[in-house]
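User: Design a sequence. Structure:
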């Protein structure tokens, strides 16, 4: 599916990979070794893809689009490296994380290095508006992670709090990608706001789908244990919806299990509870509603191959398995 979605910008994505690698060239042997290791595990490139498709939707892809995509990928990669340290994660995309392959100190410093490279790319190309947008997104991502830690300690069960967290930690950057793609290729301020909102909506749906997968996925597919959010006391939408639907005494019993030291048996019971009380079904419906609103926004733009791919990408976000 991703290959089909990429078709209108396949040549540009291939060129971007070279552009991105060139931006990371260094004479420092240790940094070069780690970066080569990092690049070898590249993902689906969803964020650069959004930038190129957003640019193609409103105008012509150009040098500014490549600069914006490079900045986003550098900053996003830096946050992933730092996240693995914070989460004490041993794997990322099926291979050892940087902190596991080397150590925490090297991982933190590498993340700092990538952030600095992202800042330099923006300054050297005079893209200060890109920098403002991305700096705000990174600030929100940090706030979202801290808010999630606070919520996991207090176990505040609130749908509003959940959406605040996922906007900050996930949707803010996806929204920024669509906004940057638009302004790299067009001066249309109305189109910019529409694409920014489109990115917010699919970003929320993207994270809801992630949270659903944690309850219904396969460990071999998603690359982490199913129920990992429960182990980390993360209160996500499937659990919130199930707790709100269940009889009060049963919901309280499950809530106590979430609060306590969670045994494997308890995690299985919590997952089954979420399934039985429609937490997954209702979360799917919510994610689809967000995507449907996002697709409505795209109808305001000319019908072209980029729009068709963005429509397909919107559907892919709520159907993917990992």
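Assistant: Done.
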């Amino acid at each position: 599916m991703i290959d089909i979605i990429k078709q209108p910008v396949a040549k540009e994505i291939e060129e971007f990979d070279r552009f991105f690698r060139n931006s990371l060239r260094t004479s420092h042997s240790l940094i070069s070794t780690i970066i080569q290791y990092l690049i070898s595990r590249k993902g689906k490139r969803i964020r650069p893809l959004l930038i190129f498709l957003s640019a193609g939707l409103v105008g012509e892809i150009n040098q500014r689009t490549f600069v914006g995509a490079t900045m986003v990928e550098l900053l996003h990669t830096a946050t992933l490296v730092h996240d693995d340290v914070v989460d004490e994660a041993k794997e990322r995309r099926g291979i050892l994380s940087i902190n596991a392959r080397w150590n925490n100190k090297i991982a933190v410093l590498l993340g700092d290095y990538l952030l600095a490279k992202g800042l330099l790319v923006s300054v050297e190309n005079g893209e200060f508006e890109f920098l403002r947008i991305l700096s705000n997104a990174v600030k929100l991502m940090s706030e979202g992670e801290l808010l999630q830690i606070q919520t996991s300690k207090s176990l505040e069960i609130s749908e509003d709090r959940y959406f605040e967290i996922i906007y900050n930690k996930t949707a803010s950057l996806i929204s920024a990608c669509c906004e940057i793609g638009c302004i790299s290729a067009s001066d249309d301020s109305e189109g910019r706001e529409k694409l920014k909102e489109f990115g917010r909506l699919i970003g929320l749906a993207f994270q809801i789908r992630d949270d659903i997968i944690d309850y219904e996925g396969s460990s071999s597919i998603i690359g982490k244990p199913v129920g990992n959010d429960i182990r980390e006391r993360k209160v996500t939408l499937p659990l919130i919806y199930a707790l709100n639907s269940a009889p009060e005494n049963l919901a309280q019993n499950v809530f106590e299990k979430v609060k306590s030291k969670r045994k494997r048996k308890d995690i299985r019971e919590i997952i089954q509870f979420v399934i039985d009380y429609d937490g997954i079904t209702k979360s799917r419906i919510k994610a689809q509603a967000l995507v449907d609103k996002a697709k409505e926004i795209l109808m305001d733009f000319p019908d072209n191959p980029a729009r068709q791919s963005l429509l397909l990408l919107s559907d892919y976000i709520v159907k993917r398995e990992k």
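Confidence is low (pLDDT under 50) at residues 219-223. The longest helix spans residues 189-216.
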